[in-house]
Amino acid sequence: MKVIAVMNYKGGVGKTTLTANLGAEIAHRGHRVLLLDLDPQANLTFSFYSVEQWREELRKDLTIMRWYEGDLPGREVALQDLVVTPPVVNAELADSGGRLDLISSHLRLIDMDLRLAARLGGGTTIGESKRKFLDLHGSLARALRHDAFREYDLVLIDCPPNFGLITKTAIVASDHVLVPAKADYLSTLGIQYLAGNCHELVAEYNDYVNHGASAGGEKTIETRFVGVVFTMVKYYAGQPIGTQKYYIEDVRLNSEMNVLDGAVRDSPRYFGDAGESGVPAILRAPVTDEVVVEFRKLTTEILDKVGERAA
User: Fold this and answer.
1) pTM above 0.85, yes or no
2) Which of 149, 196, 264, 295 has the smallest count of CB within 10 Å of its CB?
3) Would the CA dihedral through 142, 114, 62, 104 be positive or negative?
4) How far apart, in whole angstroms, are the C-alpha atoms of residue 81 and residue 79?
């Protein structure tokens, strides 16, 4: 099982649209995919369930909020008990041999970073503080090591647009980080900062593990960047329009992150109604459409970079 965190500090970059369609396309290829929605906006959840369905079926007992509650994430409810199988999209996938499951988000998750931060305090010794750090930051990684998750080929984590404690638990749990970005100033501004924060988190975590602070069998981690995938790209004569091309090339030349060859074309016709049908656009659009052809090439590129079969 590979775990990919999808993240960018900037909201509105198509992060959730990319995650939903990427998961659906990989499931369509016969894989078993789990989507984990950690963004309190819950847009990934609402890509597969209506707000009414969420309120009636998921809100009380089946959201990631329940897992993060308590004095330590996962102590009161097992992560695998929160997995649901969205019926509409899986009916669409019925002939593919794949499956798309989800752990849904909750709008109250927006307050959880402050509550988690409070749990890090109160250590009476440096050793105790380090153990609390590892217990909290490694909680999602430990949960995903449960046998119940071995049936999945891939887990995609839709992270909040920040570098708070929830995002940090996702980074520690992930093998790879995928960074969606619009080709504009604000969306690309924080890419280097994001990379630096990830490196610092991994270094601190590994330092505590190596110096014996681990009490739960934590191991050192290595998080790799899949790269930057540009979204909402407008094309003219087969090339991104001038201003977008400038920012794409700037990141390619000046960032330590690889820029993927594939991109997500700006297509309100397909991506504008994301979530309304419960089936991502990649499964609804004609297979010969240029948006679908390009997205499938992008999916293959991502799978190749994380070492998964690109069938």
Assistant:
1) yes
2) 196
3) negative
4) 5
